[in-house]
Amino acid sequence: MKVIVDTPEGIAKQAAAIYKEILADKPNAVLGFATGSTPLDLYAELIRLYEAGEISFKDVTTFNLDEYVGLEPTHDQSYRYFMDTNLFNHIDLDPANTHVPSGLDTSDEALAAYDAAIEAAGGEDLHILGIGVNGHIAFNKPGDPIDTMTHVVELTQNTREVNARFFDSIDDVPTHAVTMGIKSIMHARKIILIALGEAKADAIKAAVEGPVDPACPASVLQLHPDVTFFCDEGAASKLSL
Ligand code: GLP
Questions:
Q1: What is the pLDDT of residues 148-186, one digit of tens each?
Q2: How far is residue 14's CA from residue 12's CA, in Å, rounded to a whole number?
Q3: Phi then psi for 146, rounded to 5 degrees?
Q4: How far is Cα 194 from Cα 72, in angstroms, rounded to an integer?
Q5: Please, are residues 61 and 28 in contact by the beta-carbon 8 Å criterion?
Q6: In whole angstroms, what is the distance from residue 112 CA to residue 150 CA?
Q7: Which among 152, 228, 139 has a CA at the least distance from the CA of 182?
Q8: Which 8-state DSSP code applies to residue 39?
Q9: Which listed residue, of 23, 48, 166, 231, carries a Cα 20 to 30 Å from 15's Cα?
Q10: For the residues of 141-194, what is the DSSP string, one character each?
């Protein structure tokens, strides 16, 4: 595991450079994306590189981590809408090659089909992750089993409260989500996790320096052969680097 500390702008540039390198090597790469405020600077940088003619997503296939159960893809808080408006609509990606778990069809068949589609695409070359203040990745919460593939989870009160800022009230925050499991995420050949701000410092310390323990889902990434944590000073502030 590599840990790189930089400013949020520097992190967006360094992470975007990794995409550029992968796409130069493999124009039809399979990329895993995440939602949340953390990757927004990176997505803006990817759009900038695309507009500058430095990268193309023409032959890329994408898979997103998670989606709220019950939200239509057009709902402005759905993760499909988030990806369309913050990245996909601004680059030359074929919409048919973008995948976000369905929040409407959460049947066992649909969940299994999501992992099967990743496998059929050849597996992910790169997955980007954020991290929750309690160490969750995607919607895999502390204490969840770590050998899971795509599945439905009940959101914790804490996660619903943290995400309530995007909804009119906490009552509007969905109670469940579909999430790629830790095992599905660990299948990616390369993983980048970005953490910004002091609120993430405890989660980063547990993930990087703590034991591999389901109590901090992100700590499982220590077992991955190619993972880079990009942290700003706040997020890295509790590390004994
Ligand atoms: C949500 C998402 C995660 C994301 C986390 C942190 O729970 N499911 O994928 O990493 O929020 O969000 P933010 O980047 O806004 O701090």
A1: 999 999 998 988 998 899 899 999 999 999 999 999 999
A2: 6
A3: -100, 5
A4: 28
A5: yes
A6: 7
A7: 139
A8: T
A9: 166
A10: -TTS-SS--SEEEEPPHHHHHHHGGGSSSGGGS-SEEEE--HHHHHTSSSEEEE
Q: Which atom of ligand 1 is nearest to the CA of 194?
A: 14
User: How many angstroms is it from 88 CA to the middle of ligand 1?
Assistant: 18
Site of tokens 């034991």? 211
Please, which residues have CB within 8 angstroms of residue 112's CB and are 6 or more apart in sequence? 149, 150
Q: Over the stretch 55-107, which tens digit does the pLDDT of each residue have?
A: 999 999 999 999 999 999 999 999 999 999 999 999 999 999 999 999 999 99
What is the SS3 assignment for 135?
Answer: coil
3-state SS, residue 47: helix
Joined tokens for residue 223:
């077992």
Half-sphere exposure of 236 (CA within 13 A, CB side): 17
Which H or E element spans position 99?
Answer: strand 98-99
Maximum C-alpha span of the chain: 46
Instruction: Give the SS3 label for residue 110.
Output: helix
- DSSP, residue by residue, 175-188: SEEEE--HHHHHTS
**Is residue 87 a contact partner of residue 198, using CB atoms and an 8 Å limit?**
no
Minimal-distance CA residue to ligand 1 atom 11: 36
73 vs 234: CA distance, rounded Å: 34
**Ligand 1 touching residue 66 (CB < 6 A):** yes
Give the tens place of pLDDT for each residue, 128-149. 999 999 999 999 999 999 999 9
Residue whose CB lies within 8 A of the most ligand 1 atoms, among 38, 66, 78, 137, for a mutation test: 38
